[in-house]
Each structure stands twice: as C-alpha cells, then as structure tokens.
Specification:
six-stranded parallel β-sheet, binds cobalamin, binds iron/sulfur cluster, alpha/beta, 43% helix
Length: 546
C-alpha cells in the first residue's frame, strides 16, 4: 500500500523560553562542553519524542528532517523550505517559542501539526495550528495521517495510553549527537504512586509500561554504532515504579551492555523506595550497579513529615532509616550518586520550616538539588484541590524553578514564599555547604562505574575555563580536599583518581550554573511588585473575611 502523504515533512523542537531553569545547565555546559555544529552551546539532551515520531513518519514522506531550534539558529523560512507538513512539539517551558514559531510557519502557508506535553484544550496553539494532538503520539498519529489523506480531518485529536509494543523507536541518526552532552532513552512510562503535585500518573498512567526489550537494545546498539560512549539519561518517570519488573529491566540493561560490548554510564529518576529493606530492593540495588547507573534523581521533596503525608509521598516515610540515611545507604550500596528534587510551599510548611529544609539538604550527600516552590500543574490532584478552595492565582510557567508560586500558600504569603525560596537557594548553594556535600559524594561514589568514560575526557581546555573564570577561587579552595579523597581512595593517577577529579570539576561547573540561577532569582524578586493579597497567607485572608 502506498503510504505517502507528502514529499517533505519537517519536525521542529522549539527553543526553551528561558535558559534560567535548573535543568538547562546552560552556564555549566558553556564551561565544559565545546560548541555544537552551528557554533551554539551544546544542550543537555536531545528531543527524544520527536526522534521517535521521525522514525515513524519515514514511510509517509520522501524527505524528513528534524531541527532542534536550541542548537540550530537558522531562520524558520529556511528550515521549512519545501515542506508539505510541519510537526512541532515540546513542553510548557517552550510554549512561547512554540507559539512564535507556529505563527511564522502559518504565515509561510504550511500545514502545521503540534503535539507534546504543552498541548491541552486550553493551549493558545488552538488559535494558530491546523491540528493539535494531545497525549502520546503513538495513539493518534495514524488516525491523523489517514484523515489527512482522506481530506477528513478534525482540529483536535486526543490519544490515550498506548501499549508498549507501539512505543516509537527513536532514530538517533535523526540528530547530530555532537550537539548534546548526554543522550536519552525511555524504557518505561507511568507511575503508580499518588503524589498530589505530580501530573505523571494522569498524563502517562499508573501502569508501568515497559518498552519491548529488543527496542531498548536497538537504541543502545544504534547509539554505540554512532560512536556515543557518554552518559545516557533513562528518562523513565519512575524507574522503580514496579520493583520486580525493574529488576528485570536492570538485568536486561546489563545484558545489553555485554552484548554490544559497552556499558553506557546511565542515570534515571526514581524514588527512595530503593532504600527499602526487602529482597527485591536488595536485588535492584545490586543490578542498578551492574547496569552501570552512576546517578539517580530522587523525589525527596521535603524533610517535613506532615508535608510528605499531605502530598501523599508516603513512600519516603517507609522503614526505620531517616531520609539522610536512606540517601547515604543508596550511594553505599549502588556506588551511584544521588540528586534530589525538593519542594517548599506545602500547606504544612511554615516560615520556620525553612531552617529544617536547609539543615536537611546540607546534611545529605547530594550535591545537586533541584529545589522549587510548589506549583500546581494541570492534570494534578493538587490543582483540583486548590481550584476547589479558590486558591489558584495564575497558570504555571512550566518552569518549577522560577521562584513563582501559582496559588495562595497556607501559612505564609506569596511574597514570603519567594523570600523563603531565595533563602533556601542561598543556603544550599553557599560554597561551604555545597562543597561539603560534594566531598561526601566523592567519598561514596564508586569511581569504577565512571572511570572508563571519564578517562576519555582528555580536554584540558575545560579545566582552564573552570579554574580561571567566575568562582575559580572557590574551586581552588576545595581542590586539595578533592585531591586528597581521590588519592586516599584510589591511589595517585589511577583511573579511579582521574574519575573522582573529573566528577569534582564537573560539580564545580554545576555550581557556577546554580549560582547564576540564584542571581536571576534575586533580580526577579527585587523587581516584582506585590499587591495586597500577595502579602497575606491563605489563613490571614480567611480570617479577614470571617
Ligand atoms: C527528559 C526530560 C527533560 C530533559 C529535556 C530533554 C529535551 N531535549 O527537551 C531535561 C532534563 C533537560 C528537562 C528539563 C526540564 N524539564 Co523535563 N522532562 C523530561 C522527562 C523526564 C521525559 C521527556 C521525554 O523525553 N519523554 C520521552 C518521549 C518519548 O516522550 P515525549 O517527549 O513526551 O513525547 C511524546 C508525547 O509528548 C508526544 N509528542 C511529543 N512531541 C510531539 C510532537 C508532535 C507533533 C506530536 C504529534 C506528538 C508529540 O508523543 C511522544 C511519544 O509519545 C519528562 C517527564 C515525562 N514523562 O514527560 C519531563 C517533563 C517534560 N519536564 C518538565 C519540566 C517542568 C522541565 C523543566 C522546566 C524543569 C526545570 N525547572 O528545570 C526543565 C526545562 C528545560 C530546560 N530549559 O532545559 C515537565 C513538563 C511539564 C509540562 N506539562 O510541560 C515534565 C512533564 C515532568 C513533570 N511532570 O514535571 N526535562
Ligand atoms: S512524583 Fe514521582 S513517584 Fe510521585 S507520582 Fe510523580 S513520578 Fe510517581
């Protein structure tokens, strides 16, 4: 059957609206990564969703290209020249650029199809795009293409959760790998937990859907064939959503590494259940290490037990160990580093709990901490509750680290929340506090997990950049301690020694990025004008009404 519906399609990943986000790592990447092919700084990760769509669309067009506007500055007219169809998609944090590009595409008379996590029935793209696809593309794209061919299209297509056999296989050859610092692969979707603030269970379902094995193996094989030996982010929503199946996943990852002759260094997102005392978690910790996970990002959220209960993050309260002990235990057992997602602004948080928050973070072995003010996202129980209570004040920017709270907090005002947030950032990224966490991290990680790829980091240029630019005096100050740890743990100039030092310098680069984020926050907060209601807590506002 002839599948063709056009001669050329262009897939566009819009620019992020701001580089002032935690995960952009924009400042650090400029320090230790060479520029990409178009002379722009490299980005952390490629547009995985579009790489899958690209592969799927191949039989439908004679010519296809994928353009990531974050690394490719060409004008839109040049990018879409000769295209019959333009596909664009991304997350809320790209919405402004998505919209601007969409307007340009339409001015140039092209047919525009948009999708991704930015799309909902309220999206401003409704006014501009020809077709909007909500949810996983796998569930709706065939219908749209059929309708396009038959000339019977509708404006809005809504997909559901697809079976994993239908997950798109990303084509890594669709991008230039040299434009990115890490690669990405998705093994599972969905999470069965009930965290009130999280949109994942509603967006991607509670069931743990695992990509068929051969597909994951093909992804790693293709990356290897294309010469990729760097880190790979396993972008699963919660890698241990189903612990028994996760053991199988980790075992299979190990087997893939054996088969292709290379164990890519990996990191992923998961919960503190990994610290549970159970046979299955014990197995999982073992296979996590074998599969060469060098880092994990844990949703720790808050040390405030009442807030954890409020937000239904009950998995953090399991067992006898404290949160600090759990994080240390995970690193001891797996050799992997720990990164934390933290949130301030729950109804049980107060002005006083700021100190508890800071003390907690600074007692851990996690150098990298994404701290954000609580925000109510669409598709969450939190938003439903706050709407019912009449506390929502604005839509979210999609950037949970921009220091803006989008509802009226319970015990303190929105203005106070922002001040408290700044206080938290300043304290957890104070040089002494941060580098103490770095040193604990360097003591605990297994350098053997990193040494084979860290030793490939030959460039001395990035070291010069780190040790001569802003904050260099801080990096020099803590360097003797890092050298001491590297030597004491691995001996002088061994692969382990090099790995520990490379990790130290990389964390110096991250420090520069986090400090720059604080400067931005400070500036934003100083320029903000608050109305009277923004100076009052929900409690105060309610009392005033009574
Ligand atoms: C990997 C990832 C990242 C990477 C980004 C990689 C990149 N190149 O963009 C990194 C780590 C850099 C990142 C950063 C951020 N992220 Co992020 N990230 C993810 C994560 C974990 C996985 C995304 C992914 O690759 N999924 C796998 C692919 C296959 O799925 P997909 O991209 O969603 O594509 C599917 C559909 O959406 C759809 N689709 C996508 N595009 C298109 C286009 C068309 C035309 C069609 C038809 C369909 C379609 O079909 C695809 C196949 O099913 C998601 C969580 C999640 N499960 O979505 C969060 C997520 C997307 N991130 C989020 C956030 C908030 C952020 C940050 C703002 C956090 C911060 N404060 O720093 C930053 C902003 C980025 C920046 N400035 O750098 C939110 C977005 C919320 C929203 N509704 O938009 C999510 C959903 C997590 C969450 N629940 O909070 N992130
Ligand atoms: S925050 Fe993590 S554990 Fe909680 S529901 Fe979302 S993905 Fe699952």
């Amino acid at each position: 059957m002839n599948k063709s519906i056009g001669s050329k399609a262009v897939l566009i990943y819009p620019e992020f609206d701001t580089q002032d986000t935690f995960w952009s790592y924009s400042k650090s990447l400029q320090m230790y990564a060479p520029l990409g092919e178009h002379g722009l700084p490299k980005r952390l990760l490629p547009p995985l969703g579009l790489m899958g769509l690209y592969n799927y669309l191949k039989p439908f067009y004679e010519q296809l290209c994928l353009v990531d506007r974050n690394v490719d500055p060409r004008p839109i007219a040049e990018i879409i020249d000769g295209a019959d169809h333009v596909f664009m998609g991304g997350m809320l944090a790209q919405e402004k650029h998505l919209l601007a590009d969409a307007v340009d595409v339409k001015k140039l008379g092209k047919i525009l199809i948009v999708g991704g996590t930015a799309i909902s029935p309220e999206s401003p793209l409704n006014e501009v795009a020809d077709y909007l696809l909500e949810n996983e593309a796998e569930g709706v794209i065939a219908e749209l293409l059929q309708d396009l061919k038959a000339g019977l299209t509708k404006k809005y297509y809504k997909g559901g959760f697809v079976q994993p056999e239908h997950f798109f296989q990303p084509d890594y050859a669709a991008i230039n790998l040299q434009n990115y610092v890490h690669m990405a692969v998705q093994i599972s979707r969905g999470c069965p937990e009930n965290c009130e603030f999280c949109d994942i269970p509603m967006r991607f379902g509670k069931a743990y859907r695992v990509t068929p094995w051969e597909q994951t193996a093909a992804s790693f094989r293709q990356m290897k064939q294309l010469g990729w030996t760097g880190q790979v982010f396993v972008v699963d929503d919660n890698f241990i959503a189903n612990p028994r199946k996760a053991v199988e996943v980790a075992k299979n990852l190990y087997k893939i590494g054996e088969d292709i002759g290379y164990h890519h260094p990996k990191y992923t997102e998961l919960t503190l259940r990994l610290a549970d005392e159970s046979i299955v978690m014990n197995d999982l910790r073992y296979w996590f290490r074998k599969a060469n996970f060098i880092n994990g990002f844990y949703g720790v959220e808050t040390p405030n037990t009442a807030s954890l209960r409020e937000t239904k993050k009950l998995q953090n309260l399991r067992g006898e160990r404290s949160l600090v002990e759990k994080l240390k235990f995970i690193s001891e057992q797996t050799g992997a580093g720990v990164m934390m997602g933290m949130i301030y602004g729950f109804d049980h948080d107060t002005n006083e709990s700021v100190d508890e928050f800071i003390e907690f973070v600074n007692a851990t072995n996690a150098p990298i901490v994404m701290a954000g003010l609580l925000n109510a996202l669409p598709c969450t129980d939190l938003m439903t509750r706050l709407k019912k209570q009449g506390r929502m004040t604005q839509a979210t920017s999609g950037n949970n680290s921009d220091g803006i709270i989008n509802f009226i907090p319970y015990h303190f005002s929105a203005q106070q929340a922002e001040q408290n947030y700044l206080r938290i950032l300043n304290a957890i990224y104070a040089p002494q506090a941060y580098f103490e966490r770095v040193m604990r991290h360097l003591q605990l990680i297994d350098p053997a997990l990193q040494s084979h790829y860290r030793s490939g980091n030959k460039s001395a240029t990035y070291l010069v950049k780190i040790l001569t630019k802003k904050y260099a005096w801080i990096y020099w100050r803590f360097l003797p301690k890092a050298l001491h740890i590297a030597k004491a743990r691995c001996g002088f100039n061994t692969p382990g020694y090099v790995a520990i030092l490379a990790e130290y310098f990389s964390l110096c680069g991250q420090f520069t990025h986090f400090r720059s984020q604080i400067t931005v926050q400070k500036r934003n907060i100083a320029n903000r004008v608050y109305q009277d209601w923004q100076r009052r807590s929900w409690q105060e506002l309610n009392k005033a009404v009574e």
